[in-house]
Amino acid sequence: MAYSDKVLDHYENPRNVGSFESGDDSIGTGMVGAPACGDVMKLQIKVNDNGVIEDARFKTYGCGSAIASSSLVTEWVKGKTLDQALAIKNADIAEELALPPVKIHCSILAEDAIKAAVADYKSKKA
Ligand code: FES
Ligand code: FES
Protein backbone atom coordinates (compact mmCIF):
# COMPACT_ATOMS: atom_id res chain seq x y z
CA MET A 1 0.00 0.00 0.00
CA ALA A 2 1.33 3.43 -0.89
CA TYR A 3 1.73 6.06 1.79
CA SER A 4 0.70 9.63 1.07
CA ASP A 5 3.41 12.28 0.65
CA LYS A 6 2.51 13.79 4.03
CA VAL A 7 2.85 10.44 5.78
CA LEU A 8 6.21 9.88 4.12
CA ASP A 9 7.37 13.36 5.08
CA HIS A 10 6.54 12.80 8.77
CA TYR A 11 7.88 9.25 8.65
CA GLU A 12 11.21 10.31 7.15
CA ASN A 13 11.51 13.54 9.16
CA PRO A 14 9.54 12.93 12.34
CA ARG A 15 9.00 16.06 14.42
CA ASN A 16 9.56 16.17 18.17
CA VAL A 17 10.83 12.63 18.71
CA GLY A 18 12.01 11.89 22.24
CA SER A 19 10.90 12.17 25.86
CA PHE A 20 10.68 14.61 28.74
CA GLU A 21 11.51 13.76 32.36
CA SER A 22 8.13 12.44 33.43
CA GLY A 23 8.66 13.32 37.13
CA ASP A 24 8.20 17.01 36.34
CA ASP A 25 4.60 18.07 37.11
CA SER A 26 4.44 20.31 34.04
CA ILE A 27 4.59 17.14 31.92
CA GLY A 28 1.68 14.93 30.94
CA THR A 29 2.42 11.49 29.54
CA GLY A 30 0.03 9.39 27.50
CA MET A 31 0.87 5.81 26.63
CA VAL A 32 -1.57 3.93 24.45
CA GLY A 33 -1.58 0.73 22.46
CA ALA A 34 -3.59 -0.51 19.52
CA PRO A 35 -4.92 -4.00 20.21
CA ALA A 36 -5.48 -4.55 16.48
CA CYS A 37 -1.80 -4.43 15.58
CA GLY A 38 0.18 -4.21 18.83
CA ASP A 39 1.60 -0.78 18.06
CA VAL A 40 2.46 1.47 20.99
CA MET A 41 2.53 5.25 21.13
CA LYS A 42 3.89 7.49 23.89
CA LEU A 43 3.04 11.16 23.69
CA GLN A 44 4.11 13.83 26.15
CA ILE A 45 3.05 17.43 26.57
CA LYS A 46 4.82 20.19 28.47
CA VAL A 47 2.32 22.69 29.86
CA ASN A 48 3.18 26.21 31.02
CA ASP A 49 1.66 28.13 33.94
CA ASN A 50 -1.04 29.59 31.69
CA GLY A 51 -2.30 26.13 30.79
CA VAL A 52 -0.85 26.29 27.28
CA ILE A 53 1.05 23.39 25.77
CA GLU A 54 4.45 24.79 24.94
CA ASP A 55 6.21 21.64 23.77
CA ALA A 56 5.53 18.00 22.95
CA ARG A 57 7.45 14.78 22.34
CA PHE A 58 6.57 11.34 21.08
CA LYS A 59 7.95 7.85 20.73
CA THR A 60 6.00 5.42 18.60
CA TYR A 61 6.70 1.78 17.95
CA GLY A 62 4.51 1.12 14.98
CA CYS A 63 3.73 1.59 11.36
CA GLY A 64 4.46 4.63 9.23
CA SER A 65 0.94 5.97 9.66
CA ALA A 66 1.17 5.73 13.44
CA ILE A 67 4.53 7.53 13.42
CA ALA A 68 3.20 10.20 11.07
CA SER A 69 0.00 10.64 13.15
CA SER A 70 1.97 11.14 16.35
CA SER A 71 4.51 13.44 14.69
CA LEU A 72 1.67 15.55 13.29
CA VAL A 73 -0.16 15.89 16.60
CA THR A 74 2.99 16.98 18.44
CA GLU A 75 3.05 19.88 15.97
CA TRP A 76 -0.66 20.56 16.31
CA VAL A 77 -0.80 20.66 20.12
CA LYS A 78 1.95 23.25 20.50
CA GLY A 79 0.47 26.62 21.46
CA LYS A 80 -2.92 25.07 22.24
CA THR A 81 -4.76 25.04 25.54
CA LEU A 82 -5.62 21.66 27.05
CA ASP A 83 -9.23 22.03 25.90
CA GLN A 84 -8.12 22.86 22.37
CA ALA A 85 -5.82 19.85 22.35
CA LEU A 86 -8.70 17.64 23.51
CA ALA A 87 -10.73 18.88 20.55
CA ILE A 88 -8.31 17.31 18.04
CA LYS A 89 -10.16 14.46 16.36
CA ASN A 90 -8.73 11.42 14.69
CA ALA A 91 -10.71 12.36 11.58
CA ASP A 92 -8.72 15.60 11.34
CA ILE A 93 -5.48 13.63 11.52
CA ALA A 94 -6.64 11.04 9.02
CA GLU A 95 -7.77 13.76 6.62
CA GLU A 96 -4.54 15.76 6.91
CA LEU A 97 -2.46 12.64 6.24
CA ALA A 98 -4.86 11.16 3.68
CA LEU A 99 -4.92 7.87 5.59
CA PRO A 100 -6.71 4.97 3.94
CA PRO A 101 -9.49 3.16 5.88
CA VAL A 102 -7.23 0.36 7.15
CA LYS A 103 -4.97 3.00 8.76
CA ILE A 104 -7.68 4.97 10.53
CA HIS A 105 -6.91 3.18 13.80
CA CYS A 106 -3.41 4.72 13.66
CA SER A 107 -4.97 8.19 13.86
CA ILE A 108 -7.29 7.02 16.65
CA LEU A 109 -4.18 5.98 18.56
CA ALA A 110 -2.85 9.54 18.25
CA GLU A 111 -6.13 11.07 19.45
CA ASP A 112 -6.18 8.64 22.38
CA ALA A 113 -2.54 9.49 23.19
CA ILE A 114 -3.33 13.22 23.42
CA LYS A 115 -6.32 12.53 25.68
CA ALA A 116 -4.20 10.28 27.89
CA ALA A 117 -1.43 12.87 28.12
CA VAL A 118 -3.88 15.63 29.10
CA ALA A 119 -5.54 13.33 31.67
CA ASP A 120 -2.14 12.47 33.16
CA TYR A 121 -1.20 16.15 33.37
CA LYS A 122 -4.50 17.01 35.08
CA SER A 123 -4.14 14.14 37.56
CA LYS A 124 -0.68 15.41 38.56
CA LYS A 125 -2.05 18.92 39.13
CA ALA A 126 -5.13 17.79 41.03
FE1 FES B 1 1.33 -2.20 13.54
FE2 FES B 1 1.27 -1.09 11.54
S1 FES B 1 0.28 -2.85 11.97
S2 FES B 1 2.97 -1.64 12.49
FE1 FES C 1 -1.50 -0.18 13.84
FE2 FES C 1 -0.76 1.79 12.39
S1 FES C 1 -1.09 1.82 14.51
S2 FES C 1 -1.15 -0.20 11.72
From TrEMBL:
Any one GO CC term of the record: cytoplasm
Any one of the GO BP annotations: iron-sulfur cluster assembly
Gene3D superfamilies to which the protein is assigned, alphabetical: 3.90.1010.10
A single MF term (Gene Ontology): iron-sulfur cluster binding
Domain NIF system FeS cluster assembly NifU N-terminal: 2-125
Domain of life from the UniProt record: Bacteria
Pfam families: NifU_N
Family recorded in the similarity comment: Belongs to the NifU family.
UniProt xrefs under NCBIfam families: iscU
Reported function: A scaffold on which IscS assembles Fe-S clusters. It is likely that Fe-S cluster coordination is flexible as the role of this complex is to build and then hand off Fe-S clusters.
Protein name listed in UniProt: Iron-sulfur cluster assembly scaffold protein IscU
Taxonomic source organism: Pelistega ratti
